[in-house]
């Protein structure tokens, strides 16, 4: 069964918004449109439940219950225990807190591995552990292709390595890394694994339990939700690392690595992402009673639609001599996040595209290290064209036509 794109687009008010009419959105890797159930829940929370949650009066009880519902339902889709999922202000802030926990837990002389394929959020906070005497080893991409080779990781691992950090998918290379394979390699060497899933999760929520990493992070404002960072920490690691929250909350796993008070309304509205998955599942006749199975079916519907739309775009851009496509030119192995290095600064080209109704961006996208490693001047940046399952065939055609005019 193919994704019903008309049904999908009806769930996003942005597509009916007059001020956005005629404009095709291609900066989804920066942040997605928000689905109706999330907007409804956020609105309801602010109108009816905007009181301190978990107190014994009705508005408060409902607010707290909705926050719990969001955690339980998203955890179920992700294939992990409810307590293993926590909400923080952003992925960058979540990795920052995690890095403080590792800094306290690790000993000088022990090592971590980071990549030069990651967005800075899953790189810089870990690299700063060098200040505490921790050895930081860099797993490097191929400078031509941007590919991260798991065999190179094996050469970096030894008994001193405690943690391996890498992206499920880079926000400029776009290639989907084999998380299960890499995790198995790291685990065999006795290291924990932290995966940045920010660039992957918008293309279908993964079953993190099956994938296997100890930590998996993504940002809800890119997965049709509110501005929150979702963080899975599997229980054995979460209980091992020192608590970063209030001392009296140390016994509650989901509070251990979110020291700030949560944004109640946005946490509650995250349940709208689960509503959306369920709406898509029901509409497409997915009969699974298990949330992770429904999530997997919806994931596959989204991916199939994206892959079909992506290949013509990849073909169109790779046919141009003046353009360097970063990452693979086959749609199957990559996310629809297409970064192009041009022979000039990218941002003015994005501005030119805007004249043809294309919303896209140019710059380094905080992927300064991968761009540098691939020989792209971060000051010139890349033109990034990123879409999701709600993008239509017509919008891809509009983009390719606009590229013909501006490139
Ligand atoms: C791959 C990747 N990781 C991490 C982040 C940071 O996420 P946040 O904005 O939630 O801190 C981004 C943001 O663009 C990203 O693209």
Plain-language structure description:
The chain is an alpha/beta fold. 40% of the residues lie in helices and 14% in strands. It has a seven-stranded mixed β-sheet, with helices on both faces. Strand 6 (192-196), helix 8 and strand 7 (215-219) form a beta-alpha-beta unit. The structure holds pyridoxal-5'-phosphate. Pyridoxal-5'-phosphate binds at residues 90-92, 119, 121-122, 167, 171, 196, 198-199, 219, 229.
List keywords for this structure.
seven-stranded mixed β-sheet, 407 residues, 15 helices, single chain, 13 strands, alpha/beta, four-stranded antiparallel β-sheet, binds pyridoxal-5'-phosphate
Fraction of residues in helix: 25-40%
Per DSSP, the total helix count is: 15
What is the multimeric organization of the chains shown? single chain
Uncertain ranges: none
Strand order of the largest sheet: 2-8-7-6-5-3-4
Please state the average pLDDT score.
98
In whole angstroms, how far apart are the ends?
A: 36 Å
Structural class: alpha/beta
Bound molecules: pyridoxal-5'-phosphate
Strand content is 5-15%
What's the gyration radius in Å?
21 Å
General form: globular
- Give me the count of strands: 13
Main β-sheet, in a few words? 7 strands, mixed
Instruction: Output the helix-strand order.
Output: HEHHEHEHEHEHEHEEHHHHEEHEEHEH
What's this, in brief?
The chain is an alpha/beta fold and 407 residues long. It has 15 helices and 13 strands.
